User: Fold these one by one.
Assistant:
Number 1:
Amino acid sequence: MEVSNNARGSFRNKMTGRISNAFAKGQTMFFRFFADTFFAKRYGHRAVVLETIAGVPGMVAGMWIHLKSLRKARTGYGPQIRELLAEAENERMHLMFFIKIAKPNVFERLLILTAQIIFWHYYLVLYVFFPKTAHRMIHYFEEEAVRSYTSYLEMIESGDIDNIPAPEMAISYYNLDSDARLSDMIVKVREDEKHHAEVNHRMSL
Ligand SMILES: [Fe+2]
Ligand SMILES: [Fe+2]
């Protein structure tokens, strides 16, 4: 009897994991489709708008776990809260770098505002009820970000996009050489996104 209960439990866990994974992947494909349709190869603008969204999940999750720690009056949440808030801060810095490269037009500003209102609420609800699925989705988002920045780099290498000097802010943030170029900055940003992908994968387990 116990064995069959265990088997049923593990089957249920497996199914839940699969549904969660399919949902996270589906959402990622949905957002990717939007980004591809809207921005195509305008990578500077794409980075600006997507980084405004990328700064949301870490803040929502960090805030939620902070509140949970307060409610339960329990310690042990500190490292996770700090890690999530650091992710949000890092994404905000990415935005500050790319805003020097591409200025959003009026329509993009409207899109940023709308996306922030919708995505903040959407992610909060998802995080409250399905935190692991939420982290899994961000893991896939971050993997897409790595792909996008790789394509951006390829366009710079092929000469389709000018390899202009990196913004001062990025040079001091990443401790780059004073003559660093846009491509050097993107390599660093891409490393950050890889790190976010790993962190969110760990938190989704
Ligand atoms: Fe980012
Ligand atoms: Fe990221």
Number 2:
Amino acid sequence: MTKRKFRIWRGDANGGDFQEYMQDVGEGMVVLDVIHRIQADVANDLAVRWNCKAGKCGSCSVEINGKPKLACMTRMNSFGPDETITVQPLKTFPIIKDLVTDVSWNYKQNKRIAPFKPKPKGADGQHRMYQEDVDRVQEFRKCIECFMCQDVCHVLRDREGKNDFVGPRFMIRLAGLEMNPLDDADRIPEIRHKYGSGFCNITRCCTEVCPEHINITDNGIIPLKERVVDRYFDPIKLIGRKLSGKKVRTEPQDV
Ligand code: SF4
Ligand code: SF4
Ligand code: FES
């Protein structure tokens, strides 16, 4: 066991500050273990959200030394021997208490998205899709809703009217739906006008923090932006649609 210095943000919506704790740390411990020790030994009322302790529920996301991380997957031996470990709540969401934030805004964005709408079955009575299509949308389904990508997205951090942009987590949900060949819904007008695809300037900060290594920007957001361009701005596609008389929707619905 070695003693390690932790700075943990304590407070609530009315304000707070960092408090220092010295804690014994043993081999194999992760940051969440140490927080639990501190909670058990000296700070019984310290609030921290967690569930699985296996990197799969997304509950324990916090900022550790300024970067969003899962506390249960951040090993103590990833820090220098004399490094102070600073733990604070995700900055983008309102604080409830200590390390726990109110992430309910994200669930509201989720509800704005039109759900999967299955296409009619084929002549053989089956739904079929190619394996490459399965693989493409499977990547987006790995999301554990830790909301760390939402936390680092400067569009969500800086803008007060946050409903203008649903954020990277929901852009990949949209990508998973739009790229599913069995889905019959059209969300392109909403992606442009309601979900705010134009706000993303492809900084890739979201992709860098994703614990599931989802290529949020290159595989999700950029292809959605390309679909918006095809619909609204591609002159060849516009002429083609004019000649063929094919109608596509350009006005968004209320969501
Ligand atoms: S790439 Fe887009 S969605 Fe991701 S953090 Fe940057 S602005 Fe936000
Ligand atoms: S996309 Fe990645 S970073 Fe964003 S919520 Fe899902 S798992 Fe977390
Ligand atoms: S406790 Fe579930 S991801 Fe950390």
Number 3:
Amino acid sequence: MKLYMNPASPFSRKARVIARELNLMALVEEIAVNPATSEEVRRVNPLGKIPALILDDGSALFDSPVICEYLNDLGGGKFFPGMSLLRENSGRWRALGLQALGDGLADAAVARNYELRRPEGEKSAAFVAKQETVIARSLDALEAMRFAKVPTIGEVAVACAVGYLDLRWPELGWRAARPHLAAWYDEFAKFPSMVATAPANLA
Ligand SMILES: N[C@@H](CCC(=O)N[C@@H](CS)C(=O)NCC(=O)O)C(=O)O
């Protein structure tokens, strides 16, 4: 399988963490691309976004929730708690809801970064301010939450989003007013799969 990714991308990182946690890296070739310029990404994903996973039959999977659930099934993981008539189902909805919040935080952080890179005169201060409000509200909501001891896709998504914020907006200083989230994230970031995928700019 080929994973089109970028070492800075929080969404790519979710898939890269799951692949490592489930010992799938012998099956996954990671191909680092810039989605803004990659013709290959546009060919395999009409949305022009990464991550995109190309299966051995040539079909493409996107976006990150779909790729992560595929890798989870392939590797027999427990990142997506299952549903059963005989069991409590709330674990699944908690995990998916937390993933939605983590992905939404990453969406706002990525959108802010893209906007700030636009040429002077084309940037919208109102657009940047809106993303910053979303980022602050999401971090405050996460501060009030308690995370699962056995991580689900929700915890992975949140950690990848927060790691991206540290890369792109370190001066935000989000930790000061959110000690619980900071303590949880700083421990989570020590997992070998997180260390191996620490965000970096594409060389
Ligand atoms: N919902 C998507 C979001 C993916 C996404 O926004 N990826 C960014 C990189 S971090 C991208 O490819 N952006 C290129 C663009 O928007 O043109 C997912 O979860 O995979």
